[in-house]
């Protein structure tokens, strides 16, 4: 047994499933997860000292690569000043101003500590602001694990959702309507019928929790038009896409003006910072100004905010997103070519520093099509890559992430590993 297996056995005796977030447990691909000791640039090192090229990037935040020296220096300085005060700090104003400057739809922003909190608070705010209960989400989108959002579509969709987790009462999800992603017709039908009763629509503009599935322009435009027409709050969840697909987020690529945007991941640069923000009259419904309660002991934590701010500064260097997009495009193009060489049905695409790989001839456009991807072939590919020092997300439902430190040599090494991995996939 190697050290990873020994530690996984040990972890399972004191932590449910041995992990503190389920997907880390490798349940769908099998085997022991790697216990990471340290990381630098595009690489992570496990407890055995083995090096991996990292395409998870802590599930999105590590856009600068690991241990960026400017970020680490800023964080060390912040630590010297104290870990937490529970009182306002200048950094909180700085990061709010920075977010506003980069994302023009945001007029005011409240910091929280996780994307889950951002989603939960945004939904409560939309309900409090509109005085309506019903909310709309889309199949395959994930917005954190708050009760009313843990919902799967009922039969035939366009129905009220049923809970997708034990412990969530149906009473809580009764007001959550689940629709198909990228189906503007279905959305319009719902709004024609009951638009005036709907508090909000929440959406990932580039879905990253059913692998990667970009929204169509028509889908988002219909959503903006219908929500505006009916006084429904449009929440765009940019926890994953914010500062990842472009400096201005997915909303800048689609030219969509949300009422509320959720942020997470990159805005914390690897520490627990997330946020929800948007139009001033809506945000003014939040406590202490308005009747919608929301709070957090560690919200706006000075060390975490410093880490986020330093990260936001770095990503504004000239040419950052051009280079990030080019490197990510090289990766997916290279993977596609390798798959073709080995005659494996495969497709891949990227937007900015985010990518999707699919064991399916064509990139999927819906949850249903994602479900058609070949999970067995992915599993073989995943393990072959991991053995060869390339760490991909251990699930067919996750997007992948590239950092600015993934240079040509790193991409080339990845493609060498993929050459062998696709050969293996072909044999099984
Ligand atoms: N929204 C989206 C789009 C996400 O990808 C995630 C996390 N993967 C969340 C919300 C929840 O964020 P957190 O894990 O920080 O609670």
What is the structure about, briefly put?
By secondary structure, the chain is of the alpha/beta class.
Which helices and strands, and how do they pair?
Elements: H1 3-14, E1 36-40, E2 43-46, E3 51-54, H2 69-80, H3 90-102, E4 108-112, H4 115-130, E5 134-138, E6 151-152, E7 162-163, H5 170-173, E8 176-179, H6 184-194, E9 198-203, E10 206-207, E11 213-214, H7 217-230, E12 233-237, H8 249-254, E13 260-263, E14 274-278, H9 280-283, H10 302-314, H11 320-341, E15 347-351, E16 354-358, H12 367-371, H13 375-387, E17 390-391, E18 400-401, H14 408-427
Parallel strand pairs: 3-17, 5-8, 5-9, 9-12, 12-13
Antiparallel strand pairs: 1-2, 2-3, 4-14, 6-7, 10-11, 13-14, 15-16, 16-18
Helix pairs in contact: 2-10, 3-10, 6-7, 11-14, 13-14
This protein binds 4'-deoxy-4'-aminopyridoxal-5'-phosphate.
Residues 59, 114-116, 119, 142-144, 204, 208-209, 237, 239-240, 264, 274 line the site of 4'-deoxy-4'-aminopyridoxal-5'-phosphate.
Name of the CATH architecture of the largest domain: 3-Layer(aba) Sandwich
| Beta-strand residue percentage | 15-25%
Assign the CATH superfamily of the largest domain: Type I PLP-dependent aspartate aminotransferase-like (Major domain)
* CA-based shape: globular
The end-to-end distance, rounded to whole angstroms, is 26 Å
Question: What is the CATH topology descriptor of the largest domain?
Answer: Aspartate Aminotransferase, domain 2
- The main sheet orders its strands as 4-14-13-12-9-5-8
- What does the main sheet amount to? 7 strands, mixed
Percentage of residues in helical conformation: 25-40%
Q: How many DSSP E strands?
A: 18
Subunit structure: Homodimer.
EC number: 5.4.3.8
Modified residues (N6-(pyridoxal phosphate)lysine): 265
Pathway: Porphyrin-containing compound metabolism; protoporphyrin-IX biosynthesis; 5-aminolevulinate from L-glutamyl-tRNA(Glu): step 2/2
């Amino acid at each position: 047994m190697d050290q990873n297996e020994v530690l996984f056995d040990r972890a399972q005796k004191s932590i449910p499933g041995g992990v503190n977030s389920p997907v880390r447990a490798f349940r769908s691909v099998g085997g022991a997860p790697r216990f990471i000791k340290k990381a630098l640039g595009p690489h992570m090192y496990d407890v055995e000292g083995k090096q991996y090229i990292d395409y998870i990037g802590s599930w999105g935040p590590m856009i600068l690569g690991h241990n960026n020296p400017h970020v680490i220096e800023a964080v060390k300085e912040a630590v010297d000043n104290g870990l937490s005060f529970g009182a306002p700090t200048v950094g909180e104003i700085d990061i709010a101003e920075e977010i506003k400057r980069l994302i023009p739809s945001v007029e005011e922003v409240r910091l929280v500590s996780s994307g889950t909190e951002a989603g939960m608070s945004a939904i409560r705010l939309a309900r409090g602001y509109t005085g309506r209960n019903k909310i709309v989400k889309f199949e395959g989108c994930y917005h954190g694990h708050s009760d009313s959002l843990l919902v799967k579509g009922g039969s035939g969709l366009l129905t009220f959702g049923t809970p997708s987790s034990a412990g969530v009462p149906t009473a809580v999800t009764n007001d959550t309507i689940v629709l198909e992603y990228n189906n503007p017709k279905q959305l319009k039908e719902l709004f024609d019928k009951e638009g005036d009763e709907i508090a909000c629509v929440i959406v990932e503009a580039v879905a990253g929790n059913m692998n990667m599935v970009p929204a169509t322009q028509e889908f988002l435009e219909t959503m903006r038009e219908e929500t505006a027409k009916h006084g429904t709050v449009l929440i765009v969840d940019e926890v994953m896409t914010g500062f990842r697909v472009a400096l201005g987020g997915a909303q800048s690529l689609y030219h969509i003006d949300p009422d509320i945007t959720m942020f997470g991941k990159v805005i914390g640069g690897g520490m627990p910072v997330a946020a929800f923000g948007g139009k001033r009259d809506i945000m003014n419904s939040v406590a202490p100004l308005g009747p919608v309660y929301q709070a957090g002991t560690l919200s706006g934590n000075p060390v975490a905010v410093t880490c986020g701010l330093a990260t936001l500064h770095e990503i504004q260097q000239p040419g950052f997103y051009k280079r990030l997009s080019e490197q990510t495009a090289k990766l997916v193009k290279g993977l596609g070519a390798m798959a073709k060489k080995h005659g494996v049905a495969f497709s891949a695409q990227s937007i900015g520093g985010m990518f999707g790989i699919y064991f399916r001839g064509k990139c999927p456009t819906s949850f249903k099509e994602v479900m058609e991807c070949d999970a067995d072939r992915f599993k073989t590919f995943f393990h072959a890559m991991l053995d060869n020092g390339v760490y991909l997300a251990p699930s067919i439902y996750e997007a992948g992430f590239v950092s600015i430190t993934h240079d040509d040599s790193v991409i080339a090494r990845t493609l060498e590993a993929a050459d062998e991995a696709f050969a293996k996939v072909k044999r099984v």
